Amino acid sequence: MILRRGFYARPTVEVARGLLGKILVHGETSGKIVETEAYLGGDDLAAHSARGVTARTRVIFGPPGHAYVYFIYGMYECLNLVAEPDGQPGCVLIRALEPVAGIETMQRRRPAAHTIRDLASGPGRLTLALGISRAQNGVDVTRGSLTVRTPDGEEPVEIEVTPRIGIRQCADWPLRFTIRGNPFVSR
DNA sequence: CAATAGATCATCT
DNA sequence: GATGATCTATTGC
Fold first, then answer.
1. Distance in Å, residue A51 CA to nucleotide B12 C1'
2. Rounded CA gap, A100 and A22, in Å?
């Protein structure tokens, strides 16, 4: 089942928690989402949307259920899914996946990864493994080649909450969500 | 094993 | 002109 737009048109934190355990699919490759972070509107200064609408951040303010892909550190791209109703900022950073399908393709795209565990355990890693780039910025994630689905026989997940990684502003806000004990969570 | 430097560029000041 | 929601290779113990 592909997640419908209504799933994303909710508060960002609920979407971030709800995405854990879901399957991110791009072409022949897919992986289970095991780690997310919420980036809010308002006074969350760590979020790209904190300084208002710009050429880069306009998709965060757009309709939910779309991909926000940005380029960072001159080398890597990171994937977010837009939450909140149209007009309100909020997005969820996908930080780590447990590879499910197309593993050989992922290994070809990530020669530096020597174990399955390292294939997609990080924001920059999973975009490389799934072949996601800025070409996917703004695409609709409820249809097309990039989607999120509920797994067959979905199991309940135990969620662990911690501060977000790699930021300076609001560094102690508990907005990082992981599946407790899952070995594919990044370090 | 832990610490750190280097890669490299879009975006905003 | 500085900085950043990172990753990797290399150095040093």
1. 10
2. 11
Asked if residue A185 belongs to a domain, the reply is no
Number of domains composing chain A: 1
Check residue A2 and report its DSSP letter.
B
Q: Which nucleotides of B are covered by protein (CB under 7 A)?
A: 7-13
Give me the CATH number covering residue A61. 3.10.300.10
Name residues 48-67 of chain A with a Cβ under 7 Å from nucleic strand B: 51, 54-57
pLDDT digits (tens, 9 = 90+) for A65-90: 999 999 999 999 999 999 999 999 99
| pLDDT, tens digit (0-9, with 9 covering 90-100), for A9-27 | 999 999 999 999 999 999 9
Task: Give exposure, A78-95, as e/b (b: 16+ Cβ within 10 Å).
Answer: bbbbbbbeeebbbbbbbb
The reply to whether A133 Cβ lies less than 7 angstroms from strand B is no
Predicted TM-score (pTM) of the model is 0.96
